[in-house]
């Protein structure tokens, strides 16, 4: 983990309310890790946790959605602007345990960490399940790395009209990897528990410090409370206790 000030190479809106931020430099991160980003000196105090979308040795990229004041400030960044970052933080996906036939399940902006993850997997047969509210995005980045792509939109604009869990048959896989709204992840974990399928999820919790000191991002597990920023954000899904 390290703190640095970096220069924005690109910050573009790729879909309505969805932005891709690119920083130029030699960065390192594991799939599933995140950085704390801050691009303001006044008004807002805390940085924002954003999952790593891509690291290629030359650039570090993030995909984020406009959900509040912090991300709105990030969306105003222009080429050449300075941004403060701390990372890489958290525990990522256990690459050594990802084998066989794998289902990647993403809901909305939960597609972001899956982009980098899929590109790091080797020797697996991967199917991608992606759910969105109205329109899809970022799928073209992943299609060449997976065997099949299944899409669902609540609006019916593309693919199945409804939820991506309607299409998922967890019993067809050795392992399921999931990121998205908590209600969706709970459904996926319940499906996997019923069929005795291993599942890992990336928890999207609000964070204040990102280093485990403030306990804002605590989640419940069968072994007690754990911090999403430190012990997570990736957890064995069957160890988590979701709120009903």
TrEMBL record:
State its cofactor.
Answer: FAD; [2Fe-2S] cluster
- Cofactor-binding details, from the entry: Binds 1 FAD per subunit. Binds 1 [2Fe-2S] cluster per subunit.
Question: What is one Pfam family matched by this protein?
Answer: NAD_binding_1
Domain FAD-binding FR-type span(s) in chain numbering: 1-95
Its domain of life reads Bacteria
Q: Which residues bind [2Fe-2S] cluster?
A: 209, 214, 217, 229
HAMAP family, per the entry: DHODB_Fe_S_bind
Q: Where does FAD bind?
A: 48-51, 70-71
Question: Per the UniProt entry, what is one GO biological process?
Answer: 'de novo' UMP biosynthetic process
Q: Which PANTHER family match?
A: DIHYDROOROTATE DEHYDROGENASE B (NAD(+)), ELECTRON TRANSFER SUBUNIT, DIHYDROOROTATE DEHYDROGENASE B (NAD(+)), ELECTRON TRANSFER SUBUNIT-RELATED
What is the protein named?
Dihydroorotate dehydrogenase B (NAD(+)), electron transfer subunit
User: To which pathway does this protein belong?
Assistant: Pyrimidine metabolism; UMP biosynthesis via de novo pathway; orotate from (S)-dihydroorotate (NAD(+) route): step 1/1
* Family that this chain belongs to: Belongs to the PyrK family.
Q: How does it assemble?
A: Heterotetramer of 2 PyrK and 2 PyrD type B subunits.
Q: What does this protein do?
A: Responsible for channeling the electrons from the oxidation of dihydroorotate from the FMN redox center in the PyrD type B subunit to the ultimate electron acceptor NAD(+).
Asked if the Swiss-Prot or TrEMBL record annotates the protein with the keyword Ribosomal protein, the reply is: no
Name the Gene Ontology molecular function terms of this record: 2 iron, 2 sulfur cluster binding; electron transfer activity; flavin adenine dinucleotide binding; metal ion binding; oxidoreductase activity
Q: Which UniProt keywords apply?
A: 2Fe-2S, Electron transport, FAD, Flavoprotein, Iron, Iron-sulfur, Metal-binding, Pyrimidine biosynthesis, Transport
């Amino acid at each position: 983990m390290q703190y640095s000030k970096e220069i924005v190479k690109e910050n573009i809106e790729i879909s309505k309310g969805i932005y891709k931020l690119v920083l130029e430099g030699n960065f390192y991160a594991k799939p599933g890790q995140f950085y704390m980003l801050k691009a303001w000196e006044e008004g807002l105090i805390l940085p924002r946790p954003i999952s790593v979308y891509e690291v290629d040795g030359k650039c570090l990229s993030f995909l984020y959605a406009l959900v509040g004041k912090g991300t709105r400030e990030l969306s105003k960044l222009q080429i050449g602007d300075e941004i403060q970052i701390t990372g890489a933080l958290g525990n990522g996906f256990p690459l050594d345990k990802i084998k066989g036939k794998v289902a990647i399940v993403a809901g909305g902006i939960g597609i972001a960490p899956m982009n980098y993850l899929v590109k790091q997997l080797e020797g697996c047969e991967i199917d991608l399940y992606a759910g969105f509210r109205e329109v899809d995005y970022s799928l073209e980045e992943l299609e060449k790395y997976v065997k099949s792509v299944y899409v669902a939109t609540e609006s019916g604009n593309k693919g199945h009209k409804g939820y991506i869990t309607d299409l998922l048959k967890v019993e067809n896989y050795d392992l399921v990897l999931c990121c998205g709204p908590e209600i969706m992840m709970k459904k996926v974990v319940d499906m996997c528990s019923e069929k005795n399928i291993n599942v890992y999820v990336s928890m999207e919790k609000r964070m204040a410090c990102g280093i485990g000191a403030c306990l804002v991002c605590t989640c419940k597990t069968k072994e007690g409370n754990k911090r999403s920023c430190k012990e997570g954000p990736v957890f064995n899904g069957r160890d988590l206790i979701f709120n009903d």
